Amino acid sequence: xxxxxxxxxxxxxxxxxxxxxxxxxxxxxxxxxxxxxxxxxxxxxxxxxxxxxxxxxxxxxxxxxxxxxxxxxxxxxxxxxxxxxxxxxxxxxxxxxxxxxxxxxxxxxxxxxxxxxxxxxxxxxxxxxxxxxxxxxxxxxxxxxxxxxxxxxxxxxxxxxxxxxxxxxxxxxxxxxxxxxxxxxxxxxxxxxxxxxxxxxxxxxxxxxxxxxxxxxxxxxxxxxxxxxxxxxxxxxxxxxxxxxxxxxxxxxxxxxxxxxxxxxxxxxxxxxxxxxxxxxxxxxxxxxxxxxxxxxxxxxxxxxxxxxxxxxxxxxxxxxxxxxxxxxxxxxxxxxxxxxxxxxxxxxxxxxxxxxxxxxxxxxxxxxxxxxxxxxxxxxxxxxxxxxxxxxxxxxxxxxxxxxxxxxxxxxxxxxxxxxxxxxxxxxxxxxxxxxxxxxxxxxxxxxxxxxxxxxxxxxxxxxxxxxxxxxxxxxxxxxxxxxxxxxxxxxxxxxxxxxxxxxxxxxxxxxxxxxxxxxxxxxxxxxxxxxxxxxxxxxxxxxxxxxxxxxxxxxxxxxxxxxxxxxxxxxxxxxxxxxxxxxxxxxxxxxxxxxxxxxxxxxxxxxxxxxxxxxxxxxxxxxxxxxxxxxxxxxxxxxxxxxxxxxxxxxxxxxxxxxxxxxxxxxxxxxxxxxxxxxxxxxxxxxxxxxxxxxxxxxxxxxxxxxxxxxxxxxxxxxxxxxxxxxxxxxxxxxxxxxxxxxxxxxxxxxxxxxxxxxxxxxxxxxxxxxxxxxxxxxxxxxxxxxxxxxxxxxx
Length: 798
What we know:
This protein is mainly β. It has six domains: 3-123, Cadherins (Immunoglobulin-like, Sandwich); 131-233, Immunoglobulin-like, CATH 2.60.40.60; 241-341, Immunoglobulin-like (Sandwich), CATH 2.60.40; 349-445, Immunoglobulin-like (Sandwich); 453-555, Immunoglobulin-like (Sandwich), CATH 2.60.40; 563-674, Sandwich (Immunoglobulin-like). The relative contact order is 0.06.
């Protein structure tokens, strides 16, 4: 065949296939046509256009083929949606001699999900010539006996092409003795038969040579030939005859091997060797049928030698010839048509295609997460099936046009279930029913839907005043049940103002581990409690956060010396007191009043007379500071007595202040003792410090009372809700020593201050202030304060 003619044929078929591409939707399917042997890159059709997808949306819809069997032959362009040939397509390899060659592919478009069946018809081109099984064929015909009109079956030519490209006619070279008759079989196969036109005379011509030519219907046509030799023999004049020309039987598939399916019976009226018959498959029987069936040459029994499978071939046609042993041998022919009946011998096959690697836990219900394909090779009711899945899962199976998809049927929560194992079960409706199972594992990915939470509802920290900056105060800790970046926590301090200064100047927090450090040295006399708010934030999107209060309690140290309030004095001034000579024992010379800015033991003051042996005339009360005479004055004693008094606190180490008192003993001393009321209203002390002290005590009392009431209400509320908090300390080893040392200062700190009214021995007024009366506790979250007591005749300090 000329190459140019072949190319013209191919181009005509490509044009025809492009015309067929204009077919639209047929029963929910898209259909294209392409000729075999098309070059890679050959355009098949625009799937996106036929789906109605706009060109701008093609890349977003992610068109792709999901069929595994024929996917390698085609590809979809993700930019323009065009379907093109990807690999060489040989129709004869894919479909054999089948008249129709239809490749079924599945096209998936996402966002939203569409599932489409794509049928591509592979059209045959005339690329194969008819071929006979043998180039030489011998026919023996008995002279004279054989009457004109008798037919001799000839070998058929096989053409791998189909349709019009298959064998369409046979021709025989012209001769006076034979003609050619061509019959069409049920399956469309042409059967050439040689017809004897006149009686053969061996003496006239003992051998006839004929040329049988098979021509296909392609454009241009291809042909193949074989040589037929007619050998004229003498006289076996009765061929074997079957009792039926056509036998029709039905068989169930999967019969046991060596099962007899039919016993043939042919008779020959001749006797002896001319009447002995042997049975054979002739050349018209296909190779596939020969692999499944065999024939006993002597008995004519047809039996199975392979397993008959309905899904492989559901129809077989056996061409049988009966040949006698005469000379020449005569042949009789019959046709056995075997129809295979289906049984339910194939279980369903399940495949699952996931549309996403992991399912976000916030995916809305009704979202498709995967496509389920179920196939059954059986037919009829045996191929109908039901699909079920594991119960009590937030998923369901949706059916659309005989296709299944797995969709969400509820809300997912990764923190509760991070992975789902789904068992799919497909059961056909055959008898007995067959089923198949498949396990699908779906992982749930995390989204930032949980805010971090602190391990405690509040935190308490303690630090000594005057400690160096950089000391670890406390460590706050939070957890987040999310994972990955959604659980990466960052700690920070909520910005507030403390006495007009940013809280960040007081403390610093490590953003990684929640360690809180002091930024400066604290002064207990300036601030006793510092409340800050810590914020923890995850790194998700959007970021979620929580806050927790932290109370930092400043512990007092003995860093303040006692200060003398009364009598007024300075470092270079000696306190002078005048008393009459007539004084008796117990006379009140003066009363020393002092204060210490520290608290607790650090503020407990003791008055002591330094070198008490230097004078036996006076004594000072250790606790009240009252300076009195011990006995009466004697003439021989000096009229001026200089005494040194030490005022010391109970701190560790103790701090002290010394005061020098000069007592002048005079003959006549006018002593005016103001009344206690006058002390507050009319008297003007040597300085305004006493007045300032009184005003301060009253203000502190009011503030303390209000604070106490607020904290008491807060404590009662928290107790009713069961809130609790835990303390965290500077260091594990120092915690107990800190509490032992400063517990008195924290839990019992009382200042009793007496204001001396005069020098007549009458007691002045005393005020009592209780700054710290109760300890920090889970309910108070800090110190309690008692109000300043009213002034009373009580004297001294405790």
